[in-house]
Amino acid sequence: MSFTRLSIQTRCISSQWTRAEIPRRTLANYSTQIKKTAGPFTPNKLITESVGDTSANINRTLVYIGPFTETIRRYKTTASLFGVCGICAVPALLSTGEAPIMSVVLAGVSAITPIGFVHWYTKDYVTRLIVHDDVKTVEKQRKKPQEIKDKWVGLEKVGLMGFVREQTVRLSDLTDKSTPKAVMWEAKGKKFALERDVMNTDPFLNGLVNFIKKKSV
Predict the structure, then answer these.
(1) Gap between the Cα atoms of 67 and 39, Å rounded
(2) Cα-flanking dihedrals φ and ψ of residue 179, to 5°?
(3) Where are the membrane-spanning stretches (predicted)?
(4) Number of domains in the chain
(5) CA 12 centroid distance within chain
(6) Comparing 83-87, 119-123, 130-134, 136-140, which segment has the lowest mean pLDDT?
(7) How far apart are alpha carbons 198 and 182 in whole angstroms?
(8) pLDDT digits over 164-206, tens only?
(9) pLDDT score at 40
(10) Count of H helices and E strands in the chain?
């Protein structure tokens, strides 16, 4: 009987120690690394991918990843590569003097056309949305989206050659131009398209959408 009581007391002490220890471990492991959103279409490898903790990233939190980010980057890189090869092939064909001029021109045009089409079709697509705030603030506002205030955000796009370009603007400078298919923002004549399904899934992202929408009215 005494052995049973001793066992129960030991379990109680152990469980109390565990409950007291968990908060300390959580606080000790807390980091201000860039946080990656887990939208319904976000690839798992992008969520679990580690990001180095540098001083430049301390107050920058990644809250959105476009579901077609990698696809668009690959398309643009591939199209640019074939375009460069096609442009280089044009003078080589002309130097032979045997290829018809019209065929050479068509070969050059067909090599450049995919670059222009892919870039035009995806020029407004936002690959990543970065909020200039620390993770604690973002998590707090995720629970209470109505408390979101004006702040700086970084909107990344993929350029013509597949390179990433980021434009930093304030939420108050963005105007809502949304369509039924996508969340569309505009600032300084440039448009930014984000996936509506992803933006509506996360409370914080939805709070950003509502903030800009109210300001645009």
Answers:
(1) 8
(2) -120, 170
(3) 78-95, 101-121
(4) 1
(5) 46
(6) 83-87
(7) 10
(8) 889 999 999 999 999 988 999 999 889 999 999 999 989 999 9
(9) 43
(10) 7, 7
